[in-house]
């Protein structure tokens, strides 16, 4: 494939002796993966009887590689939410955050929902998962994937990070910022991403990422965990963005991410201050593991935060509508939904228990 000349020159300078090995990757087919839904089946047991040839992703216990000539996305199992088609290196992001059942979690840049569904499965449908997407056209796909995966603790919203930060100061135990980026790790999968790339676009993305992180920091409670990720290689959007974050918010501490399955440390030498703790971040290189590439950093907030003083959602649905739903539930469904019934236009919605007022 044809790569942007400025990108080639940049990566040659950064990678030096590794560059030839890195660029050789683009002569091969992209890596394919799927992630099994543990809410619906046992991943290991299902993989042994799956109608596809699968091999495990070493850094994700529910992730598997499949062969290029197979099409699991067209199988009824996919429509049933038994698995999610996901680029393998992207699976490492939610593994770094690892939310526990019962926690309050925010996926700030959530569409199309790959990482949201992974987080929700880890939470075992307990607690609260807010999946936000700023672009209205992408929210539909996010909501469909959440529904297909069977997530009942998840609320999909369409807001700016700034608006959410005003409503949820110091509220979340864990936040994922899978930031919009220049997409250098997508070039093999999507050649249009390569045609859109430029050094100016990298700088534009880095500036936007920092604005998003400001909002994320405001919503994180004391002791809370923030995971930041991109699917790009540029230090401006990765190590240098984390360097800026640590300098701006001195109470943040960079936590180590396990370097398994070919995952490598961050590169302090690509920053202005050469911060040694940037080795705690993770680089997933396409010439070092089976995946298209990712960057992941994990941070903890140390500064005390004021208790959240917002309002909790209250039932706003007509009692007659709730009775009709309960009747339908008994006749047609296998599970009984608990939560707060609210009306959105002509729709009846069940919010998770202890869900904030989102009106």
From TrEMBL:
<dbReference type="InterPro" id="IPR018314">
    <property type="entry name" value="RsmB/NOL1/NOP2-like_CS"/>
</dbReference>
<dbReference type="InterPro" id="IPR023267">
    <property type="entry name" value="RCMT"/>
</dbReference>
<keyword id="KW-0963">Cytoplasm</keyword>
<dbReference type="GO" id="GO:0008757">
    <property type="term" value="F:S-adenosylmethionine-dependent methyltransferase activity"/>
</dbReference>
<protein>
    <submittedName>
        <fullName>SAM-dependent methyltransferase</fullName>
    </submittedName>
</protein>
<feature type="binding site">
    <location>
        <position position="133"/>
    </location>
    <ligand>
        <name>S-adenosyl-L-methionine</name>
    </ligand>
</feature>
<dbReference type="GO" id="GO:0003723">
    <property type="term" value="F:RNA binding"/>
</dbReference>
<dbReference type="GO" id="GO:0008173">
    <property type="term" value="F:RNA methyltransferase activity"/>
</dbReference>
<dbReference type="InterPro" id="IPR029063">
    <property type="entry name" value="SAM-dependent_MTases_sf"/>
</dbReference>
<dbReference type="InterPro" id="IPR031341">
    <property type="entry name" value="Methyltr_RsmF_N"/>
</dbReference>
<dbReference type="InterPro" id="IPR049560">
    <property type="entry name" value="MeTrfase_RsmB-F_NOP2_cat"/>
</dbReference>
<feature type="domain" description="SAM-dependent MTase RsmB/NOP-type">
    <location>
        <begin position="17"/>
        <end position="302"/>
    </location>
</feature>
<keyword id="KW-0949">S-adenosyl-L-methionine</keyword>
<comment type="similarity">
    <text>Belongs to the class I-like SAM-binding methyltransferase superfamily. RsmB/NOP family.</text>
</comment>
<dbReference type="Pfam" id="PF01189">
    <property type="entry name" value="Methyltr_RsmB-F"/>
</dbReference>
<dbReference type="InterPro" id="IPR001678">
    <property type="entry name" value="MeTrfase_RsmB-F_NOP2_dom"/>
</dbReference>
<dbReference type="GO" id="GO:0001510">
    <property type="term" value="P:RNA methylation"/>
</dbReference>
<feature type="binding site">
    <location>
        <begin position="109"/>
        <end position="115"/>
    </location>
    <ligand>
        <name>S-adenosyl-L-methionine</name>
    </ligand>
</feature>
<dbReference type="InterPro" id="IPR011023">
    <property type="entry name" value="Nop2p"/>
</dbReference>
<keyword id="KW-0694">RNA-binding</keyword>
<keyword id="KW-0808">Transferase</keyword>
<keyword id="KW-0489">Methyltransferase</keyword>
<feature type="active site" description="Nucleophile">
    <location>
        <position position="231"/>
    </location>
</feature>
<dbReference type="Pfam" id="PF17125">
    <property type="entry name" value="Methyltr_RsmF_N"/>
</dbReference>
<feature type="binding site">
    <location>
        <position position="178"/>
    </location>
    <ligand>
        <name>S-adenosyl-L-methionine</name>
    </ligand>
</feature>
<dbReference type="GO" id="GO:0006396">
    <property type="term" value="P:RNA processing"/>
</dbReference>
